[in-house]
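Request: Show me your protein:
***
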Amino acid sequence: MKTRISQLKLSPRHLEIIEMTKKNGFLSTEELSRSFNVTAQTIRRDINELCEKGLLRRYHGGAGLASSVANVDYPTRQVLNHEEKIRIARMVANYIPDNASLFINIGTTTEEIAKALRDHKNLRVITNNLNVASLLCDNPNFEVIVAGGVVRGDRGVIGESTMDFVRQFKVDYGIIGISGIDEDGTLLDFDYREVRVAQAIIENARQVVLAADHTKFSCNPMVRLCHISEIDALFTDRQPPESILAELAKAKVELHVSEPAEESFPQ
């Protein structure tokens, strides 16, 4: 039986290999060996360990993303791109005014946004993320409302009752995360039940804010949420690929990038 990833510690090199693979989709053993200045044998050992943990898939000559049908586990997602998520969260928090009503959905980026919102005043927050609720409920200026439903291992709440609950409200801002953005602008995720709750959030928010770090531009889960034209603002840490920029411009979606233009996503 495989050891659960949440019970394992990943080395800094392993974390960097995962991030690089998410950016590029596939990396050869030679590329990784050169990047880390280690032998090909060391890299092959790293790849074997990460494949055993379900984080990568071994291919001839290198490694690629593990799966389009299963996300990496929650503790690993918390660690990956953490600094980038913090920068995105600060931008989103600056965008949200005091005295606003919000939906905040499932995800490690939305949880960083919740942390960044803790000094706001008079927010009313509706969430299907128990981690978000826990982060915000101690502020006496906030009213935090938690949707009912089935609780996942990452403390996200999903299901028919969750959607029905969300549809009772109409809020100022819907803050959502995503697992992948296809080159044609399709927003993608792994769990169709989570996607259906996110769709209800989009339908019942006056403005929809998408928070996604740059690795989401090279990840392709199989469940369709919507097209990027259905959101109002995208917050990310690097300039998106040209194909995504074109879709954003066509739909007049606001783009907020935390890094200068020279930190753009590789085209």
User: Anything to note?
Assistant: Residues 82-95 form the longest helix (14 residues).
